[in-house]
Amino acid sequence: MPSDTSESITSPTTGYLALLRNREFAGLYAGFTLTVAASTLSGFALGTLVDHQTGSPFLTAVSMYGATFATVLGALTLMSVADGNRPRRTLVVLHSVSLVGVAAQAVPGLPLAARFGLLLVLGFLQSLGTGTRMGLLAEVVPASAYALARSLMNITSGGMAVIGYAIGAVLLRYLSPQGVFVTATVLTGAGLIVVSATVREHSIRLTRRPGLRQTWTANVALFSHSGRRALLLNLWVPNGLIVGCEALFISYAPEHAGALLAAGSAGMLLGDLTVGRLLTAEQRRRYAFALRLLLAAPYLLFATHPPLSLATAAVFIASAGFAATLPLQEQLLALTPDPVRGQVQGVESAGRMTWQGIGAAIAGGAAQYVTPAATITAVAATSVALTVVSRPFVARAHTVRDETVSA
């Protein structure tokens, strides 16, 4: 069922505490929280390790967001498993394999080529896990509470990133990157235990066997719908470019990268809390364009090489604009038939994460030739331009479902 966006987001029956009283949602939420914390710690540790070993802005940026490149492989090949047989079992298996991959990063002396290979494997698994988790989310919460549930998960993602980057910076003062990888492994294992103990099995939404053909059929129908296509591109490209700016923080200010990353995560948390909890669905749609502009515009200040305090404030303010994803996600859900909502949400997440990797690669590559500050400014300006140019296409996205996607 599509989200009932006419219901007030402040309804006492759909508050955050009411959601957390749902045992299954609480389990999905806790597993997601632990996974984000582990991913943040391992990404920061790997970025620091690569920066120390190579001094390359490109390799450092790619090491922090390289896993996102492989998410597109999941979206193009096996994402239909998100709506297929035994979604709980699928999620548990993906968690288990991810646990092994994170633990492998803790092996001392592991070659960088092997570490980047692990990034690709983990990114592929993450994309399938996200699709499965979001498909289950739409099953375990009422349709009217879906936007609030996504808001809470977005807020938590920002909050755990703040904590993760702060803790990661502290841990790296006393531990090697391998020690931080061990901590991430423990968190990943805890997430696996929580999901296994709380989430039950749900119905199979697909009428066909999941696999490559089913995935491609649904994806072709997905992108043939102009409304969904416009929403997906706006969820992916402008955001990914700004993540490219963030990927240069270690190169821009090595001693203060943790503070800049934490400020970005804190701004994202504030934006998601405000937009998801305090605004109605109509208000979210109305402010979506302004939020997308806010996401990029403050980064233009980096052209002036601002002092650290001003740069941190600009990053914090800009990151509130990530909340523009919520109204776009609501519109996408309203355009998606029930049988493939897990796959479509997985494709949305995978594309968004892939563009984070592309943005990091673009920014890191440019920073090999010009300064990180100049690169940040240019990438942010490109994001602003794309947001402005694409506005008419997003405005024309309607809420009439195309049921052929489930055929």
Largest sheet: none
**Helix-strand pattern, N to C?**
HHHHHHHHHHHHHHHHH
Rounded to an integer in angstroms, the radius of gyration calculated over CA atoms is 20 Å
Shape call: globular
Give start-end ranges of low-pLDDT stretches: 1-14, 206-211, 400-407
Mean pLDDT: 78
Could you give the count of β-strands? 0
Describe the protein's architecture and organization.
With 407 residues, this protein is mostly helical. Mean pLDDT is 78; it is low at 1-14, 206-211 and 400-407. It has helices at 16-20, 23-54, 57-65, 71-76, 87-105, 112-140, 146-174, 177-198, 212-224, 226-246, 249-252, 257-278, 281-296, 308-319, 325-334, 341-366, 372-395.
Quick rundown:
The protein has 407 residues and is an all-alpha fold. It has helices at residues 16-20, 23-54, 57-65, 71-76, 87-105, 112-140, 146-174, 177-198, 212-224, 226-246, 249-252, 257-278, 281-296, 308-319, 325-334, 341-366, 372-395.
